[in-house]
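User: Can you help me understand a structure? I only have the sequence.
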Amino acid sequence: MFEVPGSGESPGVVSSEFAAVSVSIDHDGNSARLRLEDLRSGAVRFVDALELESIVWAPEGWFRRLMDPSLHRWRDADAGPGIEAVGPERPGR
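Assistant: Let's start by predicting it. Here is the structure, written out as tokens:
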């Protein structure tokens, strides 16, 4: 389910046994973008069309590394999205 432009309706929550994320469309920026909120931590990220397209076109190996929660999520519970890295080492380590 996706929002009909101008309706203000949220697409909803995507969840599994590992995570729950609220997904909605935000129209407050320069253009429409996804608003993703981790319901466990309250962390919010906005993703625009170019970023979404980059995910779609990314090589499978890169995408798997990006989605690996042990890369950043479970290493420092207080760090949140501000310390992301997809390479072999995280900044500041």
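Now, to help you interpret it: The first strand starts at residue 12 and ends at 15. Residues 58-88 form one domain. Let me know which part you'd like to focus on.
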